[in-house]
Structure formats: structure tokens, C-alpha cells
Design a protein that fits this description.
The chain has 6 helices and 15 strands. It is globular, with a radius of gyration of 17 Å. With about 270 residues, the chain is an alpha/beta fold. The two termini are about 20 Å apart. The strands form 3 sheets. Strands 6-5-4-3-2-1-15 form a 7-stranded mixed beta sheet, with no helix packed on it. Strands 7-8-9-10-11-13 form a 6-stranded mixed beta sheet, covered by helices on one side. It has one domain: 4-Layer Sandwich (Metallo-beta-lactamase, Chain A).
Length: about 270
């Protein structure tokens, strides 16, 4: 398995020439009125024809329907959590992605935690996760080519890490959000002073519980627009330091860089 880090939280996963994408995000324009333009590139996959698009949730920075319509193979599904139900204050952060999926007539499949789905050489399993705003979210365990990885979107810290490891591990790599963003958005008032996703030390604690071959930070630096969206200081460096203190190997991937996981379940330093 090869895993290429795309922009923000996105990854492209390849096994034997087949690919899928997770949390693909190329177009930041829906978010720019709130957080400004991205501070880093948001590249797409190296190849088209992905067998599936996995989304942890339908915020615009984790589900980009225009990009999915371009890179997915004809008829390839978008696997997603359940829709939110309610008025615009409930669904407003999800409506852009929902409308885009409908506009492109992308086939979607609503998934439930712990229920595996087989697509080509991949077995993908949604895992429990907690969104910082109360919107439906999952994480993804992805197995293929004798390798297992976990992608955690932008979840908060929670108590399912142990079960995720026991039921879908051991993991060769885990991709964890680290930017600990404090958010003040009009659809979630009054604002919370607490981070809406894991900070570096929480992510390192999750990594220690998951006990992977390597932990990779995601979801940092590209978006940072105070006072609406305020990233914590030095997220990647703090994550690496906290993981080192916990004995967890790390790898910081630059945008566009690939992690080669050809030796499943080995522990390396």
C-alpha cells in the first residue's frame, strides 16, 4: 500500500494500481469568506479512476463534490455518514457538500460504524468518531495489500480508540488531526473556547492507544483564519514531540509526499 498525502486532511490510497481517496479537498472557496484563502496548496490525486471516495463527514473541507466527480471512476460510490436533519442552523455547514453530491449525481452509500465494505482490493470500515459541532462523522479503517491504516478526519478525542485497535488493528499507520482549532462560527453560537478537533497532545495520546507502526499528522496549517478559525501553535512539531515521549514513531508528510507501507505490521523507529 502507498498513501499519498493530499491537501489538508486528504489522502490517496493505492494498492496494486487501484486507488481510493479519503476527505478529498481541492476547492476552498466555500470557506474563504470565513477563514480566508488556504495557506498551502490543495493538490488532487496523482491519477483518476478511484474506486471510491470516502468522506469522514460533509464539511466543505472534507467533502469536495467537484473534485470527487472528476477523480472517481464512473459509478464509483461516495461512502459517507448519515445526513443531518433539521433547519439551516443544523445543516448549514453540510449543505454545500450535499448539494454538490446531488448536482453531480454521485452514487452515495450511507455507512454505519463497524460495518465493513469491500471495494476492489480494499476493505474499508467506518469507525466511531465525534465531530466538534455535533455533525455526523466517522473515521475510516482501510485494509489492502496486507496493510491496515486508520484515517481520523477531524475528530475530537474519544473513548473508541481501544476498540478501534482491538477490532480493526493492528494499524501500520494512523493519520490523525492535530491542529486543535478553536472556532467561532455563526451557526454554532455561543462559541466554545475548547478546540473543535484534537490538539497535538490529544492526537499523540490517541496514537499511543492505537499503537501503530507510524503516526502521521494531518489537518493543520492549510487553513487558519483567526478569529473565526484559530489553529493551535506548532501543531506538527508538538505532535512529534508528544509521540516521541509516548514511544510512538512518527512521520511528517509534506503535501504531495507518499508513505510506502510495504512491510505490514512491522514496528520501526
Amino acid at each position: 500500500m502507498n498513501v499519498r498525502r493530499l491537501g489538508w486532511a486528504g489522502i490517496e490510497v493505492e494498492v496494486d494500481g487501484a486507488t481510493l481517496v479519503v476527505d478529498l479537498f481541492e476547492d476552498a472557496s466555500p470557506l474563504e469568506p470565513f477563514v480566508g484563502p488556504p495557506h498551502e496548496p490543495l493538490p488532487g490525486p496523482e491519477r483518476d479512476g478511484a474506486l471510491a471516495g470516502l468522506v469522514t463527514h460533509l464539511h466543505a473541507d472534507h467533502c469536495d463534490p467537484d473534485a470527487l466527480a472528476r477523480v472517481l471512476a464512473p459509478g464509483a460510490p461516495v461512502l459517507r455518514p448519515e445526513p443531518a436533519v433539521g433547519d439551516v442552523l443544523v445543516t448549514g455547514a453540510l449543505d454545500h457538500a450535499e448539494a454538490g453530491l446531488e448536482r453531480h449525481a454521485l452514487p452515495t452509500q450511507v455507512v454505519e460504524p463497524w460495518e465493513p465494505v469491500t471495494i476492489g482490493p480494499f476493505t474499508v470500515t467506518p469507525l466511531p468518531a465525534v465531530d466538534g459541532f455535533g455533525d455526523p462523522q466517522v473515521s475510516w479503517a482501510i485494509a489492502g495489500g496486507g496493510v491496515r491504516i486508520l484515517h481520523a478526519g477531524d475528530t475530537l478525542f474519544h473513548g473508541w480508540w481501544w476498540l478501534s485497535r482491538m477490532r480493526r488493528g493492528p494499524f501500520d499507520a494512523v493519520f490523525l488531526p492535530v491542529n486543535g482549532a478553536v472556532v467561532d462560527l455563526p451557526h454554532r453560537q455561543p462559541p466554545s473556547p475548547l478546540a473543535a478537533d484534537m490538539d497535538p497532545e490529544q492526537a499523540a495520546t490517541a496514537a499511543a492507544i492505537l499503537d501503530p507502526g507510524v503516526a502521521v499528522p494531518i489537518h493543520y496549517d492549510a487553513l487558519n483564519g483567526p478569529p473565526v478559525y484559530t489553529q493551535t501553535e506548532d501543531p506538527a512539531d508538538r505532535f512529534v514531540a508528544a509521540c516521541a515521549a509516548a514511544g510512538v514513531p512518527t512521520r511528517v508528510l509534506a503535501t504531495g509526499q507518499t508513505l510506502d507501507l510495504t512491510r505490514p505490521h512491522e514496528r520501526t523507529t
